[in-house]
Design a protein that fits this description.
The complex is a heterodimer of chains A (86) and B (373). Chain A has 86 residues and is of the alpha+beta class. Chain A is built from one helix and five strands. The longest helix of chain A is centred in the last third of the chain and has 19 residues, at 55-73. Chain A starts with 5 loop residues before the first strand and ends in a 13-residue tail after the last helix. In chain B, the strands form two sheets. In chain B, strands 4-3-5-6-11-10 form a six-stranded mixed β-sheet, sandwiched between helices. A five-stranded parallel β-sheet of chain B has the order 2-1-7-8-9. In chain B, strand 1 (29-33), helix 3 and strand 2 (55-59) form a beta-alpha-beta unit. Chain B is globular. At the A-B interface, strand 4, strand 5 and helix 1 of A face helix 2, helix 8, helix 10, helix 12 and helix 13 of B.
Chain lengths: 86, 373
C-alpha cells in the first residue's frame, strides 16, 4: 500500500493527471497537489498524487551519502558530526 | 529514472556499512522501523547483512492490514455477508483469515465483495449497484487517510446515497510513543515511515525526540536511504542527541502536505483504536466526524460486534509489537506460508513474516556485492 513509486506527469486536467512509470500510464487525483505541473515527478498512492519528488534535493542527498561513503574509505577519518539535514 | 538507481549502488552501500560499523556503540542498539515498505526493502535487499550484530533493526506495526484487530476484520466480513451489502476494500485484506473464514472465502460462498486499488473505486461500485449499500472498508495510515477523505467528499459532491465508510484508519505517531515507552521492547530510536511522513511532515515526530528522548530519522525506501538513515541514527546516539532528522527531504517537507492534512481534519476525528498485538492506543484511530455521519457505516449498519480470537499458535501480535521475530513462531514456514497463511503478517505484501521469507533468497538489487560480515 505504501509503495509510492515516483511517476512523471504527462498531462493534467483540473483535478486529475495522467502519470507514467516504466511505460505504464495511470490516472491519478490531484486533490492533494493542485499546483502540480506537467513534467513533475510525483509519489502516487491509492490513486492520488501524494507529494512531488524534488530532484535537486535527491541529488543533494546523494552527495551527502557519497561524502559519508568517501569518509569511511579514508582510514584516518573519524567521520565526526557529519552534515546536518534541515 | 536513472538518478534513483544511484540509491542502489553496492559500492556505496558497503562504504556506508563500514561507517555504520565504526559509528555503532559497543552496546546493543535497537532501531524500530514502522513501515511495511521499509520491512520489505530491508529483507528484499538483505540489508541486515550490512549491519554489525549489535545494531538490530526491529520491525514494528507498519503494516496497516496486519494491525487491524480481529474483531474489526470479523465485523467487515459479517457486513459483507449481510443481505444487500457490498463490501469494497484493498486486495491484501481479502486473504486475512477471520475467526471463521477470510473475506475471499466469504465471497466464494456468496458474499458481495470487490477489490479496490483506490478508495474512489468504491464510488464506481456504488454508482453501478444502486440497489446495494456499498461499504468501503478503509485500512491504512495517514498515507491512505487523505484518499479516503477524498472519497467522502466525492460521495457528498456527487450525491451518492448508497455509500458508507467503515474506517479502520490509524495514525502512526501515537503507537510510536506507546512502543517507545514499553520497557520490554528497549527501542532506542525510530526509522520513520517515508510516505506517512510525506503527509504529516517531519514535525509530527518532534514530540518523540523531545518528550521520549528517541532519535527519529525519516528515511526513503531505497537501500542507501535506509543504510544512511541508520548511520544518522547512530551518529545521534553516539553524541547523546535525540532529534528528528529528515533523510527523505526530496519528498518529505517539514510541515508535510497541508492540503492532505486539511482533508483529514475535515472528514475524520482521532479517537482510541485497537491495534492487533498492542491493544488500545489513545488518539490512534481516525473515525468519521459527526458531520459525515450519513457516510459512517457504524451508523448505517449498526451490527453488533462479535467476540473474536486470534488463530491458535499465531504470534502476529508479538511480531507486530516488535517483541518477537517471525522465526520464533512455531507456525512460521510450516503451517503458515504465503500459500496457506494463518495470520495477517504472512498474507500482506507488507507483512513482517512474508518479508522474512525473502531472507533465504534476497533479490540482489544491490549490484553483486553481498554483505559486509
Amino acid at each position: 500500500m505504501c509503495l509510492g513509486v515516483p511517476m512523471r506527469i504527462l498531462a493534467r486536467g483540473e483535478r486529475t493527471a495522467t502519470v507514467e512509470f516504466g511505460g505504464v500510464t495511470q490516472e491519478v487525483g490531484l486533490d492533494f497537489l493542485p499546483e502540480a505541473r506537467v513534467g513533475d515527478f510525483v509519489i502516487v498512492h491509492a490513486g492520488f498524487a501524494l507529494e512531488r519528488l524534488d530532484l535537486i534535493r535527491a541529488a543533494h542527498t546523494l552527495e551527502l551519502i557519497g561524502a559519508a561513503a568517501a569518509r569511511s574509505v579514508d582510514s584516518t577519518a573519524r567521520g565526526e558530526g557529519g552534515e546536518r539535514w534541515n | 529514472m536513472e538518478l534513483m538507481s544511484f540509491f542502489r549502488r553496492s559500492d556505496c552501500a558497503r562504504a556506508i556499512a563500514r561507517a555504520i560499523a565504526r559509528r555503532a556503540p559497543d552496546r546493543r542498539v535497537r532501531i524500530m522501523e514502522i513501515c511495511g515498505t521499509h520491512t520489505m526493502a530491508v529483507h528484499r535487499h538483505g540489508l541486515r547483512a550490512f549491519l554489525p550484530e549489535n545494531v538490530q533493526l526491529v520491525s514494528g506495526p507498519g503494516c496497516p492490514v496486519c494491525v487491524t484487530d480481529p474483531v474489526t476484520i470479523d465485523h467487515a466480513i459479517a457486513l459483507a455477508q449481510y443481505p444487500g451489502v457490498h463490501l469494497v476494500t484493498f486486495g491484501d485484506m481479502f486473504r486475512v483469515p477471520g475467526s471463521q473464514m477470510s473475506l475471499e472465502e466469504a465471497r466464494a460462498a456468496g458474499a458481495r465483495a470487490t477489490v479496490a486499488a483506490s478508495p474512489l473505486d468504491a464510488l464506481r461500485v456504488a454508482r453501478a449497484h444502486t440497489e446495494e449499500i456499498v461499504i468501503f472498508f478503509a485500512i491504512g495510515f495517514e498515507t491512505t487517510a487523505p484518499a479516503v477523505a477524498a472519497l467522502a467528499l466525492a460521495a457528498r459532491r456527487e450525491r451518492v446515497r448508497n455509500l458508507a465508510i467503515l474506517s479502520a484508519l490509524k495514525r502512526v505517531p501515537p503507537v510510536m510513543a506507546e512502543l517507545a515507552d514499553a520497557p520490554d521492547l528497549a527501542i532506542d530510536a525510530f526509522l520513520c515511515p517515508a510516505h506517512v511522513s510525506a503527509v504529516i511532515g517531519a514535525q509530527a515526530y518532534e514530540f518523540l525526540a523531545r518528550d521520549h528522548g528517541r532519535p527519529c530519522v525519516i528515511a526513503g525506501f531505497e537501500p542507501l536511504d535506509i543504510l544512511y538513515g541508520i548511520l544518522m541514527v547512530l551518529e545521534q546516539i553516539s553524541v547523546g542527541r535525540a532529534e528528528v532528522v529528515n533523510e527523505y527531504d526530496r519528498v518529505v517537507r517539514p510541515g508535510g502536505n497541508p492540503v492532505a492534512q486539511a482533508l483529514i481534519a475535515d472528514v475524520f476525528v482521532p479517537a482510541a483504536a485497537a491495534w492487533r498485538g498492542i491493544g488500545i492506543v489513545k488518539q490512534s484511530g481516525l473515525f468519521l466526524a459527526t458531520r459525515y455521519g450519513d457516510l459512517d457505516a457504524e451508523r448505517r449498519l449498526p451490527l453488533p460486534r462479535r467476540p473474536s480470537h486470534a488463530p491458535r499458535g499465531c504470534i502476529c501480535g508479538a511480531v507486530l509489537r516488535g517483541a518477537a521475530d517471525p522465526e520464533a513462531c512455531p507456525l512460521f514456514g510450516r503451517s503458515c506460508t504465503p500459500a496457506t497463511p494463518v495470520g495477517p503478517c504472512m498474507v500482506s505484501a507488507e507483512g513482517t513474516c512474508a518479508a522474512h521469507l525473502l531472507d533465504d533468497e534476497p533479490e540482489v538489487a544491490l549490484s553483486a556485492c553481498g554483505g559486509v560480515r
